[in-house]
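Worked example 3 (structure in, sequence out).
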């Protein structure tokens, strides 16, 4: 286990515009507000298109990350995540998970890591800034180079 007490900064209520790319809107929000790291305790959203980590194929190593994606259309979503900072790119490094329901298929659900999404109607989100410690993602070679959250 790793843990660290957080020193919190500002708290924001954020909405994203219809037709926009989710991650572009998140990056623009962070840049406009000079927010480098924090957490998203929750958001609700409509997505016209979404890509999640997932597969319907047989997986050889169930402990390894899955590199394929699932493409879905016309979903309602709830999500949460962490925003770390990438020193190399000088950009945010968001890690977002969502549960989505297909509106035209009995709200059939999918839950996974969010790769891409296009907003339909709305995203309503709370973002909490973390001042300390620094959030960084560091590759762990013993875990398939998964980038794990670290406190610096």
């Amino acid at each position: 286990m790793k843990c660290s007490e957080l020193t919190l900064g500002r708290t924001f209520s954020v909405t994203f515009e219809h037709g926009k790319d989710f991650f572009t809107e998140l990056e623009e929000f962070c840049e406009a507000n000079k927010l480098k790291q924090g957490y998203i305790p929750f958001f609700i959203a409509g997505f016209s298109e979404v890509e999640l980590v997932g597969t319907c194929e047989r997986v050889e190593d169930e402990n390894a990350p899955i590199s394929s994606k699932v493409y879905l259309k016309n979903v309602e979503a709830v999500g949460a995540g962490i925003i770390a900072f990438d020193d190399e790119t000088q950009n945010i490094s968001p890690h977002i998970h969502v549960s989505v329901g297909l509106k035209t298929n009995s709200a059939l659900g999918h839950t996974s890591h969010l790769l891409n999404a296009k907003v339909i109607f709305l995203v309503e989100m709370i973002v909490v800034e973390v001042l300390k410690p620094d959030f960084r993602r560091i590759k762990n070679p013993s875990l398939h180079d998964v980038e794990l959250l670290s406190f610096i």
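Notes: The helical segments are 22-32. The chain has a mean pLDDT of 96.
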